[in-house]
Write a structure and sequence with these properties.
1 helix, 45% helix, 44 residues, single chain, mainly alpha
């Protein structure tokens, strides 16, 4: 999977188009994971 924003198609509602909440949840999960490993290095 390639990173970066996906190009919007003319239709705007393709089967592979991610809704806004999916992107927000993905970024939130990623930031939470980074915070966990940064604040708890002993958890490894």
């Amino acid at each position: 999977m390639r990173a970066g924003p996906f190009p919007t198609r003319p239709g705007g509602k393709g089967p592979r188009r991610r809704p806004a909440w999916a992107r927000v949840r993905g970024m939130f999960a990623h930031s939470t994971r980074n915070w966990w490993w940064t604040a708890h290095p002993a958890a490894r």
